[in-house]
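Fig. S4 source data, part A: sequence.
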Amino acid sequence: MGQSRTASFGWSYWAIAIATMVWFGLGIVSFLWQIGIDGFASLPTNLRDLAANRPSWATLGFAASVFAGFAGGGLLIYGQRQASKLFALSLAGAVVHGMYVLPTGMPKLAGPEWIMAGIAPILVAAFLLWYAWRKLWDSVDD
């Protein structure tokens, strides 16, 4: 049994891993809130309209992004290389969801809402894919 892959990582690795779990955990809460009756009714009108008219492929992209990202965050904490594969799936889901939100949501959402709904998930997933690949594949020789 060798030393844990994560033993040599500094505090920033752990901060990013924990922030990843929080980010995608909040994404899961948002997803479940939007598909639930009570949560959907409590959304502001502009977000409710956007979510009500969202096609199933965009909803599937949203779900894939947050659930794969959360699982990837868990694997990142344990130093598992498979985290990068889940972050790739999360990025693909974020891009698919963004294909609906970015052109459709722009007229309905204010600046910060549009950025958080369309651009931020893509940027975060892309960063985490790069980060997991760099930390878990490039830095360790088996």
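Fig. S4 source data, part B ends here. The mean pLDDT is 85.
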